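Example record

One chain of 220 residues, shown exactly as stored in the release files.
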Amino acid sequence: MTLSLSGWQKRILLLLAGIAVLALFALAFTAGRVSAGPSFPSTTSADAGFARDMQVHHNQAVEMSMIVRDNVTDETLRSIAYDIALTQQQQAGQMYAWLEEWGLSQSSSQPRMEWMAAGSGEHAGMDMGSGNDGASMLGPDGLMPGMATQEQLDELRAARGEDAERLYLTLMINHHTAGVEMAEAGAELAETDQVRMLATKIQSGQQAEITLMQTMLDAL
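Predicted structure tokens for this chain:
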């Protein structure tokens, strides 16, 4: 028995077939967009390395600034120390949030400063050395450039008055100098606009603070 379709039935079948084809195209397009997803830096990228290492660097600057703010009476220095602590705490939080957004851990088995090995290695006093790796940039105590030792932190906690001012300014100028150099590397090597923008901001902001603190240190 042969089943014959009327003209309107054929038109309905053709319409349904067209809708099915369009639905398949839409499903494939959506699946492609979902599978692609946003592109984030990898855990070994300069962006991730910068975010991790600069957080550690910033956190020590916050610690030193809060120490000296409680141990000196000079209102100008207290104001500068508070501003440094506030600014760097906010920036450290920003970098923490990036790593969370990127689905990356806040720490890594990758050595400190390793992310800078991809660059020219000519960032002021922070050249990579013959080893061309992050380890060659660290001090004998494993600290990143510019960071105070535990002994220096203890000395700062015990100091008062002009002694505390002089020691803080000396330590923070050294700390900022290394921070500027790290920021220069971050601006050069980062893949994301957000990291490049913050690195550039850190570079200019800390350079201005170095100039101000050097003037204050010279006046003591």
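Notes: The first helix runs from residue 7 to 36.
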